[in-house]
């Protein structure tokens, strides 16, 4: 969701900015643009659609300039149009790119209009450009003007600003939206994400809330929210360029589905021995802290929320700890009752989801005494994010960079981390040992499921002309059915809903006829016989069933029912293993329908606005 790249160098930066934008495409966007400072002027180019459309426009006449800012926009205020695309400029002197939402832009806009500024877009961002211009006045203190501007803003922002009169200086600042500073040799960069700058540097400063950076090719200075000069550590990233590229795969999503066995292995290794699961792998104090946990609240959005819903079954049935799971966008606006010794857990692949972050901040605001939480734990796939920095404890999912907007390996590694957490809270040593044994087999289980890929590709052809689909599951497989429906919706634009199979007769059965495909997940567990009865209810109404079932479940393909035999997996691993065929199904349906698999319409990978 909105991507920023900026550079101050001693070479032309247009190719660096364009490559950076390409590497941010995965975040989701609908238009792109860049501005270069050159020869005492600002040169702005924007285009609706893909970064390639911007690149095509620039290819007609490559622009010189050693200082520049660029942006991919995901529309919030104002429709998708070239006029609303960033950068926004003021009096051909100031150019700004912005990620986030300025909540008080309307009164600011009215004031600026009174002052004579002319607006050419419907965005909230344009006020920033004019405010910087008005604060700059006759001075040459661009950083001071940016600071004065952000002091007037309410809302979330990451900003990069350049001025025609300062041909080497880029000023950037953040509050509530991510921004990293890339440190090169004789050149400096900013971006929303490390991945954008990997071709030009491996050294980064992760800017903190309120930080403002002033950079030229020769140096950078950081001021904190109080305006005081601060030193921030420059860290070398472990991320490789190849990890952020498609390789031989047609889509990132398929690559990421296939990376799951390795991602899962990397997530448990070092945390689980042959007979135990170690809380100390989180941190030294985590072990003592987890011993005092009597309840858990899990808060997340989207796919991450589905992982939380599965964990509730595990935490209650195995560790016997009461667990409540809630959407962050709901949780943050109600007045939750916090039980004693309750651990607050957030789940997020990006670590920057605005609602999840706001929920964490709310949870922390309750303090640690009566009515507050014992501690906060973030389960996250990205290091150095707002969520990981602001949580007491962090359990990383080592999935590696996930570029496809539809989350796959981040989800299954979240599930594994939640299984690890369950094991850490499990007080019975024999049960912990059994769980540790299961976890050792997770990568192998997923590897075997991937062998069904061809069969699922063929199956997907039957969905291409469908408009709707129902997904069914019971127990911990119910949230997996929800995740399967979400994947299909996200990338193939097919309307899909998930139901706990026992709920079928309470409404959705009315939808079932020969045009309604019904997909069910049926591993061998305590719910299997109940699920089979629910499937009979569908068959009796002429519904077409597609069942991913344990090879030993006793279900066979026949009239109206197609059964795909899943390899037998341990009950605890079933939610992870059965997610994979649903990911593959959504992927192949989307490919067959010709949709944009990795960047589905209207969606963003990192949702940094409310
Ligand atoms: C976006 C992504 C989803 C993700 C959700 C929550 O909508 O497209 O894939 O599940 O945000 O993101 P998070 O980073 O907090 O897991």
UniProtKB/TrEMBL annotation:
Annotated compartments: Cytoplasm
Domain called Glutamine amidotransferase type-2: residue spans: 2-218
Active site: 2, 605
Record Pfam families: GATase_6, SIS
Keywords: Aminotransferase, Cytoplasm, Glutamine amidotransferase, Repeat, Transferase
UniProt keyword Chaperone present: no
EC number(s) given by UniProt: 2.6.1.16
PROSITE patterns (UniProt xref): GATASE_TYPE_2, SIS
Catalytic activities: D-fructose 6-phosphate + L-glutamine = D-glucosamine 6-phosphate + L-glutamate
UniProt GO molecular function: transaminase activity
Record-linked Gene3D superfamilies: Glucose-6-phosphate isomerase like protein, domain 1, Glutamine Phosphoribosylpyrophosphate, subunit 1, domain 1
Domain SIS: start-end pairs: 285-435, 459-600
InterPro entries, per database record: GATase_2_dom, GFAT, GFAT_N, GlmS/AgaS_SIS, GlmS/FrlB_SIS, Ntn_hydrolases_N, SIS_dom, SIS_dom_sf
Assembly description: Homodimer.
Its biological purpose: Catalyzes the first step in hexosamine metabolism, converting fructose-6P into glucosamine-6P using glutamine as a nitrogen source.
Name of this chain's protein: Glutamine--fructose-6-phosphate aminotransferase [isomerizing]
Native organism taxonomy: Bacteria, Pseudomonadati, Pseudomonadota, Gammaproteobacteria, Salinisphaerales
């Amino acid at each position: 969701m909105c991507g920023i790249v900026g550079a101050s160098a001693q070479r032309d930066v247009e190719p660096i900015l364009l490559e950076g934008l390409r590497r941010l495409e995965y975040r989701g966007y609908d238009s792109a643009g860049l501005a270069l400072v050159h020869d005492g002027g600002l040169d702005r180019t924007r285009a609706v659609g893909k970064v390639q459309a911007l690149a095509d426009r620039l290819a007609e006449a490559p622009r010189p300039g050693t200082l520049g800012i660029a942006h991919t926009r995901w529309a919030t205020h104002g429709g998708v149009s070239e006029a609303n695309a960033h950068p926004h400029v003021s009096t051909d002197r100031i150019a700004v790119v912005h990620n986030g939402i300025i909540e008080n832009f309307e009164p600011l806009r009215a004031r600026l209009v009174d002052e004579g500024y002319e607006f050419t877009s419907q965005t909230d961002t344009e006020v920033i450009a004019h405010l910087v211009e008005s604060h700059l006045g006759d001075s040459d203190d661009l950083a001071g003007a940016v600071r004065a501007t952000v002091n007037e803003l309410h809302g979330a922002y990451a900003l990069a600003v350049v001025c025609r009169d300062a041909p080497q200086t880029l000023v950037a600042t953040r509050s509530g939206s991510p921004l990293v500073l890339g440190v090169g040799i004789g050149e400096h960069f900013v971006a929303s994400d490390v991945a954008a700058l990997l071709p030009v540097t491996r050294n980064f400063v992760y800017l903190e809330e309120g930080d403002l950076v002033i950079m030229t090719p020769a140096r950078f200075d950081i001021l904190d929210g109080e305006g005081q000069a601060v030193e921030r550590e420059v860290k070398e990233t472990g991320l490789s360029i190849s990890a952020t590229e498609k390789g031989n795969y047609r889509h990132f999503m398929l690559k990421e589905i296939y990376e799951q066995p390795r991602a899962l292995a990397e997530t448990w290794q070092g945390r689980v021995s042959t007979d135990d699961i170690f809380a100390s792998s989180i941190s030294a104090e985590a072990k003592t802290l987890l011993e005092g946990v009597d309840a858990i609240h899990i808060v997340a959005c989207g796919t991450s929320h589905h992982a939380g819903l599965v964990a509730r079954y595990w935490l209650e049935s195995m560790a016997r700890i009461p667990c409540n799971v809630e959407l962050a966008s709901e949780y943050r606006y109600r007045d939750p009752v916090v039980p004693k010794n309750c651990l607050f857990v957030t789940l997020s692949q990006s670590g920057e989801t605005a609602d999840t972050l706001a929920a964490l901040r709310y949870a922390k605001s309750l303090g640690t005494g009566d009515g507050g939480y014992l501690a906060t734990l973030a389960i996250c796939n990205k290091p150095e994010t707002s969520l990981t920095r602001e949580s007491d404890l962090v359990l990383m999912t080592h999935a590696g960079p996930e570029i496809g907007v539809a989350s796959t390996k981040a989800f299954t590694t979240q599930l594994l981390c939640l299984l690890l957490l369950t094991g850490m809270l499990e007080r019975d040593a024999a049960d912990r040992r059994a769980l540790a044994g299961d976890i050792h087999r997770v990568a192998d289980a997923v590897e075997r499921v991937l062998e069904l890929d061809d069969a699922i590709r063929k199956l997907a052809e039957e969905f291409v002309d469908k408009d709707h689909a129902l997904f069914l599951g019971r127990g911990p497989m119910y949230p997996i059915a929800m995740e399967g429906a979400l994947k299909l919706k996200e990338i193939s634009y097919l309307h899909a809903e998930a139901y706990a199979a026992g709920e079928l007769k309470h409404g959705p059965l009315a939808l079932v006829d020969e045009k309604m495909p019904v997909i069910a997940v049926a591993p061998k567990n305590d719910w299997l016989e109940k699920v089979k009865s629910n499937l009979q209810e569908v068959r009796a109404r002429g519904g077409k069933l597609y069942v991913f079932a344990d090879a030993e479940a006793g279900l066979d393909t026949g009239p109206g029912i197609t059964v795909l035999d899943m390899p037998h997996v341990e009950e605890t691993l079933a939610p992870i293993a059965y997610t994979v065929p649903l990911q593959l199904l959504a992927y192949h349906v989307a490919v067959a329908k010709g949709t944009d698999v990795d960047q589905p319409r209207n969606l963003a990978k990192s949702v940094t606005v409310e």
